[in-house]
Amino acid sequence: MTYKSLISCMIAAIALAVPAAAQNVKIALDAPANLETSGTYVWAHTFSEHLKANGMETELFERGALGNEAERLDQVSQGLLEVSMSDLKSAGQLDGTINAVHLPFFFTNEDEMYHALYEGGMLEKINEGTTPKGVRVGAVTLLGAMAGIFTTGAEVNTIGDMAALRFRALDETQIKIYDAWGTTGTIVSWGEVPNALQTGVADGYLNPPFVPLLYGHTGFIRTFSNARVIPSARTAIISEDWFQGLSAEERAVVDEAAFKATEANRDWLAGRTTVLDSLRNEGVTVTEMTDEDRNAFVRASEKVYSLVKMPEGALDAWVAAKGN
User: Are 209 and 231 in contact (CB under 8 A)?
Assistant: First the structure.
């Protein structure tokens, strides 16, 4: 029996053994249980505490305890796991509407993204695509400030500064994005990134500002352009089977818990004001792009938006929902 099958069978056995009303709400974490350093844990903790305050018992499982991203997505879609803190790709596999969150230079800041999601109705549109497949996106959660451009040497302040550099790429789509910016990418697994950066296989990467601090890369990462490329975002996905099996009052509690958790996550990020100073203290030069230089990246990035899998009309809906 595979690990995935074993985990699914164990969860199914627990679910069958306990009446639905008495079951703990299982929440799979994706990060250490630390309210200071983990934005996704802030969301999960706040969500859990609100459920408990309203008579719904919860149980939090540490990262990896209930399987990897694909396994947890499978469990949520089958109703075997109630809530999972998951990557954006999990929901994006079910419906591509959410993939706009990771379009480069599409959002000016996180507030613009949240306006589109909550005021512009895009979270509802996302769920129109995912809930028929058993998954409700409860929230888009923030890990930290928006991603910027890190290098091992040369500063990047304009799109022209990219030409002489080669960047670590996550996948083929990111390589095409680099190409649109006039530079090259090379796919490197995360475990190999330090060696790639130190040997010159790659000259930099795109990441939120906390990443080199968290992973000890400041010994060879020397510059950071705070370009606000993409939101540093993940998701909280909820089992639609479980959600629809609740009473109206319980569903209202879950919705309120998700709202409170999202506000707590945003407040947490607003309080993370020292990360750029931390980079500077580690010897990393931090620069800011002018609006004119950032707009050059925006125009170049628009050429590759069609490469990102989304339903027809979804991109136009996002543009309208942003309100600018």
Answer: no
| CA gap 298, 40 in Å, rounded | 28
Asked if residue 225 lies in contact with residue 165, where contact means CB atoms within 8 angstroms, the answer is: no
Torsion of Cα atoms, 123 then 44 then 273 then 142, to 10°: -30
Q: Report the alpha-carbon distance of residue 281 to residue 262 in Å, rounded.
A: 31
| SS3 assignment for 38-95 | CHHHHHHHHHHHHHHHCCCCEEEECCCCCCCHHHHHHHHHHCCCCEEEECHHHHHHHC
Bridge-based pairing of strands 148-151 and 204-207 is antiparallel
- pLDDT tens digit sequence for 90-137: 999 999 999 999 999 999 999 999 999 999 999 999 999 999 999 999
Q: What angle do CA 99, 70, 185 make, to 5 degrees?
A: 50
Residues 127-167 have pLDDT tens digits of 999 999 999 999 999 999 999 999 999 999 999 999 999 99
Those residues with Cβ within 8 angstroms of residue 88's Cβ, 6 or more apart along the chain or in another chain: 98, 99, 101, 102, 140, 233, 234, 235
Helix axes 291-301, 172-180, angle to 10 degrees: 130
Cβ(124)–Cβ(255) under 8 Å?
A: no
In contact, 82 and 242? CB cutoff 8 Å: yes
pTM listed for this prediction: 0.88
